[in-house]
Design goal:
- The protein contains 5 helices and 2 strands; from the N terminus they run H-H-H-H-E-E-H.
- By secondary structure, it is mainly alpha-helical.
- The chain has 2 domains: 81 residues, no CATH class; 34 residues, no CATH class.
- A two-stranded antiparallel sheet has the order 1-2.
- A hairpin with a 5-residue loop joins strand 1 and strand 2.
- Helix 2 runs antiparallel to helix 3.
- The longest helix has 38 residues.
- The chain is extended, with a radius of gyration of 26 Å.
- The protein starts with a helix and ends with a helix.
Length: 142
């Protein structure tokens, strides 16, 4: 009985506050993509159980098909998004334009390469930390 009251309060609050649903991160990912994902998963399970060459070839083919399908779906979605942004820009719909721009997440890979005292590039994590330690000890101990 008490649960029903709480449930009613929860739904009425949701209606009165006009809460919006959380965004899906991959709007282009649909049922067809789930089918490709399931097909890839089945091929991998078959390969794990029997590592014959035919299963390896099958897994590689399924992976390739899935990758191409995902890439094409994402490309179509992003093209539609860009066209929507262009339309918002042309009709001076600034609020939706900036909301759309904020939806694009840009990944900037980190580059952990520095030069040592001799001018050689160092990419090893321990060597980079040692280089920064030496640099700051020289800088701060002056």
């Amino acid at each position: 009985m008490a649960w029903e009251n709480i449930k009613d309060i929860k739904t009425s609050n949701k209606d009165s506050l006009d809460l919006h649903e959380l965004k899906r991160h991959k709007q282009w990912f649909d049922e067809e993509c789930l089918g490709f994902l399931d097909q890839r998963k089945q091929a991998k399970m078959k390969w794990v159980q029997d590592t014959s060459q035919s299963n390896v070839n099958n897994l590689n083919n399924v992976r390739c098909e899935a990758k191409v399908h995902f890439r094409n779906k994402k490309k179509v979605h992003l093209t539609a998004k860009v066209e929507e942004l262009e339309t918002n820009s042309k009709i001076q719909n600034i609020r939706d334009l900036y909301r759309g721009i904020c939806d694009f997440k840009v990944y900037q890979p980190r580059c952990n390469i520095v030069k040592d005292e001799k001018g050689n590039l160092v990419a090893d994590c321990n060597s980079v930390l040692g280089r920064w330690r030496n640099h700051f000890s020289q800088l701060l101990n002056v």
